[in-house]
Amino acid sequence: MKKEWYAAKELVGIGGFPTTPQAINQRAKAEGWRKQRRSGVQGRAIEYHISSFPPNVVAELAAREDSQGYQVEPPNTIKAWSAIYYQLTDEERELLTTFVMREGINSLFERLGLERRSASMKEKPELECEG
Questions:
Q1: What domains lie within the chain, and their CATH numbers?
Q2: Could you please report the per-residue DSSP string of 80-128?
Q3: Partners of 129 in beta bridges
Q4: pLDDT tens across 77-130, in order?
Q5: How high is the mean pLDDT of the chain?
Q6: Are 47 and 38 in contact (CB under 8 A)?
Q7: What distance in Å separates the CA atoms of residue 129 and residue 123, rounded to the nearest whole number?
Q8: Please, which residues bridge with residue 79 across strands?
Q9: Reported pTM
């Protein structure tokens, strides 16, 4: 692990630790944890050394630190769809656009509690409220 010193607020709720920084500070004092003043912070800011923590807390802190390196950026879906769209023929683009718009409109009507009466996409729809 790279990080060795932790502030009470970073330890809240980890591995069964108390849920407030004040309670963690009380436990640290009672158990005689190794501590130091936080550098660059005004006041009585204290941080505690990892060697003072129970094994389950150390394991959870290590797991959290390791998982931070594996965060993956979400894919750029607009770029992906744009690339797909421009590989289609004009006819395919028109069919796809019509389909997506129709499904979107149908979903909107469904959410609004409206029912479509027309069977054809080219006919003007008649709306009826279900409620």
A1: 5-68 (1.10.10.10), 77-129 (no CATH)
A2: HHHHHHHTS-HHHHHHHHHHHHHHHHHHHHHHHTEEE--SSSSSPP-EE
A3: 114
A4: 888 888 888 999 999 999 999 998 989 888 888 888 887 655 554 554 454 555
A5: 83
A6: yes
A7: 19
A8: none
A9: 0.50
